[in-house]
């Protein structure tokens, strides 16, 4: 299934994409894409609904974040060899973890807002895992059973805040609009192998990132199990699994984002995102 949320910010309604590509309203069945809905039993209940019996949404307006009420937004840094190389760093022996504030979460077509005094705002296309069944000390062999589904994330990053202004990465990762997710949460049964997805990101029509999740240093199952050693995972938590090479930081002459730029990105089976870059009001 492809699940989504649509409507004005803070007033999103749940929906699904039917076999014809139309959006169907789920608000008469569930209150949102969150909590127990993300458990296997919750997803099975939605799956049993005849989608054609649901109201068709002819004009959804804004598409919002595909998951609501996220408790944790955990990210993995330097998880592709080529990205570690372009950053001038050695490939890590263990996953590098950091957090994005959940207030950074936005919709797949919402604008990316340059924070005040930003000089080095960058893009990062990433595969994200949405947790269904929570747990801790999860065994890798059972890790994917804890995944409700997958979606796309743009891990937008202000590199001066992140690197040059010292402290933890979180302050360069957490500005409002720096965590677009969606457009869909694609349930795990539709993504048979999360390590075989093609990724592509363009800025103003020029290709910047092109890669595959097969190039991850630590795969999805390993990451779910590893992260659960340090914190319990709960329904709706998001794990963003890292980016391939091609970010502005890795250019000989970096071309960071500026107002008016347009970012297009896609991951096979997970849909597309498009963002216009705008200045903070």
Can you tell me about this structure?
By secondary structure, this protein is mainly beta. Helix content is 11%, strand content 30%. It is built from 5 helices and 19 strands. The strands form 4 sheets. Strands 4-3-2-1-14-11-10-17-5-6 form a 10-stranded mixed beta sheet, with helices on one face. The longest helix has 8 residues, at 40-47. The protein is globular, with a radius of gyration of 18 Å. The mean pLDDT is 97.
Can you give me a brief rundown of this structure?
This protein is mainly β.
Portion of residues within helices: 10-25%
Total beta strands: 19
Would you identify the regions where 5 or more consecutive residues have pLDDT less than 50?
A: none
User: What is the strand arrangement across the widest sheet?
Assistant: 4-3-2-1-14-11-10-17-5-6
- Count of runs of 4 or more consecutive helical residues: 5
Percent strand: 25-35%
């Amino acid at each position: 299934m492809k699940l989504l949320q649509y409507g004005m910010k803070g007033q999103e309604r749940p929906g699904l994409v039917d076999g014809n590509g139309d959006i169907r309203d789920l608000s008469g069945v569930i209150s949102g894409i969150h909590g127990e809905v993300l458990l296997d039993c919750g997803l099975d209940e939605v799956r049993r609904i005849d989608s054609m019996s649901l109201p068709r949404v002819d004009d959804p307006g804004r598409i919002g974040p595909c998951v609501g009420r996220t408790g944790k937004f955990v990210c993995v840094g330097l998880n592709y060899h080529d990205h570690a190389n372009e950053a001038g760093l050695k490939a890590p022996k263990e996953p590098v973890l950091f957090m994005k504030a959940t207030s950074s979460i936005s919709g797949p077509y919402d604008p990316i807002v340059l924070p005040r005094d930003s000089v080095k705002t960058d893009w990062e296309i990433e595969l994200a895992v949405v947790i269904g069944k929570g747990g801790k000390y999860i065994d890798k062999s059972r890790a994917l059973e804890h995944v409700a589904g997958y979606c796309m994330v743009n891990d937008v990053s202000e590199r001066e805040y992140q690197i040059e202004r010292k402290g933890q990465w979180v302050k360069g990762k957490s500005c409002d609009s720096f965590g677009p997710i969606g457009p869909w949460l694609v349930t795990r049964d539709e993504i048979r192998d999360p390590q075989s997805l093609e990724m592509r990101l363009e800025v103003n029509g020029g290709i910047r990132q092109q890669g595959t999740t097969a190039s991850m240093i630590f795969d999805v199952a390993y990451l779910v199990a590893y992260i659960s050693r340090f914190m319990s995972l709960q329904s709706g938590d998001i794990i963003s699994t890292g980016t391939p090479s091609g970010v502005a930081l890795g250019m000989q002459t970096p071309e960071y984002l500026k107002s008016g730029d347009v970012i297009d990105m896609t991951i096979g089976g997970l849909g597309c995102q498009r963002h216009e870059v705008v200045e903070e009001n």
